[in-house]
Amino acid sequence: GNGKAGNDLQKGIVDNPDTSIDAPLAVAVDQANRAVYFTDTNNGQVVRIDGDLNAVPTFTATVVAKDLDHPGGITFNPATKHLLIADTSSNRILVWDGVTGLHAKATCSATADPATAIIWPQSLALVGAEDFPLYFSDFTSNRIRILNIRP
Q: What phi and psi, each to the nearest 5 degrees, are found at residue 106?
């Protein structure tokens, strides 16, 4: 991408310097459906690419989550078909299921106890076939955390 804010994704994404992608920080793959997700962090969105990535004219790009505040990490769960998103500057982790859209599963508030609050979540990693427990890096508190909230 060209590092400029914007949503001109249909020009093509792979190796195209004219594409308006700004700070792609994380990538997740849905192998069964041949889809790739990535965070378009400074544009506040997550994008899904479908199709043959080796043949640029044959793939499509779709914004699947928008109005996020600097999404920093994502992971895809092939068992549940959920995409988990670290909405970093909003201090929350979201679950996207493609049918009902985004659902906040864990958030912190300004008055949350610092010992348990989620503050600037970044990288995400799943353990097993469920969406939780979820390991994530808590950037501001310099910790690796485990989230066990069930949807």
A: -155, 130
Instruction: Please give the model's pTM, rounded to 2 decimal places.
Output: 0.80
d(CA 85, CA 101): 12
Q: Which residue has the higher pLDDT, 128 or 142?
A: 142
**Cβ–Cβ < 8 Å for 27, 8:** no
Which residue do the tokens 């493609």 mark?
Answer: 98
Q: Tokens 């400074």 identify what position?
A: 42
Q: What is the pLDDT of residues 111-130, one digit of tens each?
A: 567 677 788 999 999 988 88
Sign of CA dihedral 66, 90, 37, 13: positive
Sign of the dihedral defined by the CA atoms of residues 79, 119, 27, 85, in that order: positive
Residue 53 CA to residue 15 CA, distance in Å, equals 11
The pLDDT of residue 58 is 57
Q: Cβ neighbours of residue 69 under 8 Å, at least 6 residues apart?
A: 44, 87, 88, 89, 90
